[in-house]
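ENTRY TYPE: paired fold submission
RECORD: A
CONTENT: sequence, then structure tokens
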Amino acid sequence: MIQAKVTKNLTGITIQGDYDDFNDLVNAIYRMTGVDSNEAGLYDEVKMRLLGLCYDIRHAYMGDREVVLKDNVLNEDLKEEMGIKNCEQNIYYSVNVLYPEALFLALAVPNMFICCNYYYGKRDECDQEFKMFSSNSDYLKDKALLMLLSAVIFQLLEEVIGSDEFNKVYKLIEKSREYYIHYVTQYVDYCNLEFLKTDINKRKDKLIDITKKFIKPSKEYQRMEKRIKEYSQKHQIPIYAVEDDNLEYPNEIEW
């Protein structure tokens, strides 16, 4: 099962898992986003952010990211009984995600499930055997894996801001009418960069502020939404493909 922890400077979260954990999560994201489908959808912008995380996770278990060795919890007698006496450590892969980015995914991804069900339970009519792409049981598993990811992110938010503040935020989530349909995700980049500029001692309060702005669109978001969507319509390109020259990430991030 995937695990996560807060990074040293409260810059983001570190998601960890073994090969099977990460491989299952990558496959779930591919299926849930309809990665082989060319059809435009209501949640294309959210899916692109999720695929961005998927890219890092996939490279993590390919060995292109940090690898963590953890002592296993089996005692010596049990190891000998199971025939794994020399197995002292387990390999966990690791990937860092900026805190606002992670929070946006935790909030937005569960909203897109009902639209993603379309990708499951169908057969390939070009295949003589009508091969099944992915079954409805895959949908249930994939949904559970992504809900687990969201839950882990929210647990770390509570760890940072405290239970009282988290309960206030959760009540806002329950009452929210924001469904993140055609959400201008350039605003997530804006929040990522604002968070990176925030002093470490003030990041707790900044997290609360950013989370609330994701739940209920701020005036900053509304201005950006108007500008980005007008450009998208004028040039006939997807919202997520609109580049904003003001959103430039630093070369190095102190996690």
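RECORD: B
CONTENT: sequence, then structure tokens
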Amino acid sequence: MDFGRLITAMVTPFDDQGLIDWEQTKRLMDYLIEEQRSDALVVCGTTGESPTLRDEEKLELFKFAVEYSAGRCKIIAGTGSNATAHSIHLTQEAERQGVDGILLVVPYYNKPNQEGLYRHFEAIAQSTSLPVILYNVPSRSIISMSAATTLRLAQIPNIVATKECASLEQVATIAAEAPEGFKVYSGDDSAALPALSVGAYGVISVASHIIGDKMKQMLTSFIEGRVLEAARLHQEMLPTFKGLFECPNPVPNPVAVKFALNELGYSVGSVRQPLLPPTEEEASFIRNLLR
């Protein structure tokens, strides 16, 4: 399974009542696939507000995304949690909905050790025939999965990739020592090009909601050896990469991206509590980013 170079971690559109807006989900998917050139979509990842979605909503979204995408892109289900049994249950249900793969975040809050991480991911991978992408994000999960643990997990046949948000050194180590075919994705938009330079395959992106087409150009330029062109595109996009997460204070992924999409005419609604919409100062900053 090749999920492509540019994967978008998709927001979940809500209506005025805070319920999933299915018509706007269609419109958003068309936009991400056709205009922003996403090769795959992560549904119900952190950017999709997975902590506030019920399991029933997640399964509805998985099924809907598979059916509506109709083969135009791959659909990756976010089924990770900090409970192994729950992750297995959600993974098996996602497989029944026809998704192409799953994304499993490092367990958060309960802080397992490296052996606990290995057994967690091993158990989930063994419960499914789907390809598995690991997701190491120390800023959210508190702990970091080591390169050694990732490489050990990469020996399991259906663990095929990792989304890495730790250091470039870790990206380089995994890319250099993993089995052939195992792919490393940058989980940080602003580090995507540097990560490619040390062996990453692509990026699982949030900014691709807004500038995916240009990101695809950057990835293609680098892969085809036009490194200076890739660097120029990266430099042009850097204010957007940084601004979406700082605007002007640090904000969670969905907040700024949803506001930006709404400004662009894609009515994805607001965020669910405990997240809050941007302040007036933050909103003004985001509007300036879009000019």
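NOTES ON RECORD B: The chain has a mean pLDDT of 96. The CA atoms of residues 81 and 87 lie 6 Å apart.
STATUS: closed
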